[in-house]
Amino acid sequence: MPRPFFIRLTIVLAHLVLLTAAGFADEKVRAVRVLTSFPPQFLEPFQSAFRTRHPELSLEFVQRKTTTAVADIVGERHRADIFWASAPDAFEILKRAGRLAALKPRPTGAPDLIAGYPVNDPDMTYLGFALSGYGFVYNPDYLEGRGLPVPRGWSDLAAPIYAGHIGISSPSRSGTMHLMVEAILQVYGWDRGWGIWSEIGGNLATVTARSFGVSAGVARGRFGIGPSIDFLANPEGMPKDSTRFALPEETLFVPASIAVLNDAANRDGAERFVDFVLSQEGQALLLDPAVARLPISPAVYPAGETTDGSPFRRDGLFSKGLFDARLSAARYELVNIIFDEMITFRRSDLVRMWRSVRALEAALSGRSDADLAKLVSDARHALTRPPLSGPEAMELERWKDLVRVRRGLPTPAPQAQLEARIKAQIDGNMQQAARALADAAARLGGADRNADGAEAARP
Q1: CB of 306 within 8 A of CB of 313?
Q2: Which residues pair with 114 in a beta bridge?
Q3: What domains, with CATH codes, occur in the chain?
Q4: pTM reported for the whole predicted model
């Protein structure tokens, strides 16, 4: 055989071997794409342990805010195999849109209900894997330096003593915050719930862009308290003693869940990851301090840690009435639109007007003036009145087509009309409150001047 031909043949065969090996490698290591809102310190232990258990699979995590991830999946703007997040209503939206695959139950030993909430979707399209505690992140030095107590309940955040000391995220940008907003609306009722959120709005120092911005702001001392989920309470890169997490008396425990998307490119790999997360090994990873979550499997807890104080024995905020994730999903965007228009976009106005209401209410103490009291009451009522009634909010078919509109894109005409109506109603409420406050201040000032004149006229 001529030597040049032999050399060429050798090169060709070598290329074939390399291409074949690369093909086998592609077949051996298959990617599982996971769309998730969880932070890197949560994900890394799972990635390492899963790689050891399944070297033929690799996890590719794509991090998104829950609200963005849901919009991308529903709009088919992002391809993934798994959705992994905390907020149950986000999963309900995806289920309603037909984006979740049916799953088989895994043997975890978890009860059907924890703190009054179902661990798994009754239709088995998403499965609970961990418990999320919703409460308050606070800066102990900040509160102590200002003589402020740690809030004991959710409605405490509306107390005047916390004016200027609270930070929140917007529910339209945070699935965590959306769940807390919806929980209060369901537990306290539509009208009273919005009243509580309006008063909390009057106490806000800021509205952050994302959930972790709340704990970071608390850690830096920008404000002292904020609603948070347990695993975001200690922001990465901050001193550990700069924040603490408190579960209020009305503790809110719900399962964080995992689901396989119905168009998963790697369905087998996705199922294997679900198996791993719900296995004893995967559940035990949740107790890693870097992860710091509550497993749904009682068997992985150290002896004695699933007794008093655990979510398995503790009443939650939902124990007052089971949280309806389907209701939350059906009016998800409606609640976001109202919250942003009523609170997020009007924070500075709310702060100023609630300061006036509280000052006038303090001035009324010990004073008998029915007309002044009515003016102040009218202002309070206008500030707390939602732009839609409770019965109208329950007309769920009307809200099913509302969407999260990306910046720069046009809003669908029916939604634009609804948003304009909501804005106009809230504008009217704010103007009514402003007039009542101005009249009350004028009346109080006149009464004080008359009292001063009478005092001066005394011999």
Answers
A1: yes
A2: 117
A3: 26-131+255-317 (3.40.190.10), 331-459 (no CATH)
A4: 0.79
